[in-house]
């Protein structure tokens, strides 16, 4: 005679509850495991970043040639300008590379932009490397404020012209295979040119300098 074994409804309910509890908690366990792993990776990257402590890139002004600065007076003031700019960029880091993205160069005078943004091709700079950057800056019929002609007249009398040559863009740090997010880059170079009494359509007026530009990241 065979013996039949049966489980009570209560026992089956308990077993089903345990099974459902295990299945329902499996995604949570995977989530917590992934979160812990991801947090550990971010912490390791942050520690590497802090230990290496990447220094911001260094820029210096090599040469600036002013070919044209022509002001049209009238009810509205318009400016035509042409400047050739040469900069040197250096990565001072020995263990960190730098990607340069979305670089735009322009010139300003007395706080007024006198050329349109000129793009500089993106590039990568290895450990301790230096690169020479060139840009042709130009402005055609750019509106300027009423005080622009007065300021130019003052500089003609003083015999010198002070321009700000600026580069804006974004950079990314590279440590081994890891590449950081993009950071805003702002470069400001000041150049002083001899400025005679003649109208600046007979340039160029040149400025050869090796001065360091201010850089912020």
UniProtKB/TrEMBL annotation:
InterPro entries assigned: LEA_2, NDR1-like
Single GO biological process annotation from the record: defense response to other organism
GO cellular component terms, A-Z: plasma membrane; plasmodesma
Keyword tags: Membrane, Transmembrane, Transmembrane helix
Keyword Transmembrane helix: yes
Short name of one Pfam family: LEA_2
Subcellular location field: Membrane
Keyword Ubl conjugation: no
Membrane topology: Single-pass membrane protein
Transmembrane segments: 30-52
Primary subcellular site in the record, as a coarse category: membrane
Domain annotation Late embryogenesis abundant protein LEA-2 subgroup: ranges: 86-189
UniProt-recorded name of the protein: Late embryogenesis abundant protein LEA-2 subgroup domain-containing protein
Organism, as annotated: Punica granatum (Pomegranate)
């Amino acid at each position: 005679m065979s013996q039949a074994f049966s489980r009570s409804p209560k026992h089956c309910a308990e077993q089903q509850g345990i099974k459902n509890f295990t299945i329902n908690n499996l995604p949570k366990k995977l989530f917590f495991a992934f979160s812990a792993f991801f947090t550990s990776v971010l912490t390791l990257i942050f520690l590497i970043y802090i230990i290496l402590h990447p220094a911001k890139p260094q820029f210096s002004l090599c040469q600036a040639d002013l070919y044209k600065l022509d002001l049209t007076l009238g009810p509205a003031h318009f400016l035509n300008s042409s400047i050739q700019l040469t900069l040197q960029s250096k990565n001072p880091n020995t263990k960190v590379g730098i990607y340069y993205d979305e670089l735009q160069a322009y010139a300003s005078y007395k706080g007024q932009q006198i050329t349109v943004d000129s793009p500089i091709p993106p590039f990568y700079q290895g450990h301790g490397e230096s690169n020479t950057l060139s840009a042709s800056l130009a402005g055609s019929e750019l509106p300027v404020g009423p005080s622009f002609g007065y300021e130019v007249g003052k500089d003609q009398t003083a015999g010198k012209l002070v321009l700000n040559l600026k580069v804006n863009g974004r950079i990314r740090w590279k440590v081994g295979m890891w590449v950081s997010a993009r950071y805003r880059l702002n470069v400001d170079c000041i150049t002083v040119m001899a400025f005679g009494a003649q109208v600046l359509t007979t340039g160029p007026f040149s400025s050869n300098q090796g001065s360091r530009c201010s850089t912020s990241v």
